[in-house]
């Protein structure tokens, strides 16, 4: 039996550093870290860190892309299937809920950037990270909802899903649920039904 090729050690190291960087940027934010901080937390020397990532900005952008890619693993399958209008809304909503549940790093990084209002980082996330995925989805959705702007519908779903995850830590104290506990299936059903109801009434 042929053995699978062994990954190159430098590739393993780079991916390991990237995973740790996602967590650290999510916990402390871009401005809360230096490359020296990152190197120390990852137990490597600063020169070794610079060998893999030439600057904190380049590392940050790769970390955001990687975290988003983890969350949006189902997008290729989504755009290759055929839907009716209701089926699309439910499937797209589930994709986003699963993405945010799967990739806490991207969820936290996105919320941090929305609060920090760093124009360069927001432009990067909008144009290079979220933008391509949302445009693909809008192209698929527009024929299913010709009377609506599919881009706005997509961002409405995204906003509702982000809101559910953002408020999860405090929701339990308000509603009597356990703090931080989020039922993904319940969120999908609620957001999809809310959106469908609004569009049909319109």
UniProtKB/TrEMBL annotation:
It comes from the Bacteria. GO terms for molecular function: DNA-binding transcription factor activity; transcription cis-regulatory region binding. Residues 11-71 form the HTH tetR-type domain. Keywords: DNA-binding, Transcription, Transcription regulation. Residues 34-53 bind DNA. PROSITE patterns: HTH_TETR_1, HTH_TETR_2. Signal peptide: none annotated. This is HTH tetR-type domain-containing protein. It comes from Immundisolibacter cernigliae. The lineage of its organism: Bacteria, Pseudomonadati, Pseudomonadota, Gammaproteobacteria, Immundisolibacterales.
